[in-house]
Design goal:
mainly alpha
């Protein structure tokens, strides 16, 4: 079979095969891009959650220090 003289029957086989491979390559590229973006999102989310936990602990320490200070001074407790 010479590539310059393809018959109609060969074109009916090769054209859908070519388009199928093209679509498969596009889906694979989309998968790679989305997986990279998802990994970045999950790392950022994990770091954000960690920062929120640290902030929560710091706020608890501050609140307990204020309560202790109020107890020592004899002032009524405030809503914090």
């Amino acid at each position: 079979m010479n590539l310059l003289f393809l018959g109609i029957q060969e074109l009916f086989i090769l054209v859908p095969l070519f388009y199928g491979l093209l679509i498969a390559a596009l889906f694979y590229g989309l998968y790679k891009v989305l997986s990279i973006l998802l990994n970045r999102y999950l790392v950022a989310k994990r770091e954000h959650t960690s920062a929120l936990l640290q902030q929560s602990e710091a706020l608890k320490e501050i609140a307990s220090a204020i309560r202790e200070s109020n107890d020592k001074n004899g002032t009524p407790p405030e809503i914090i």
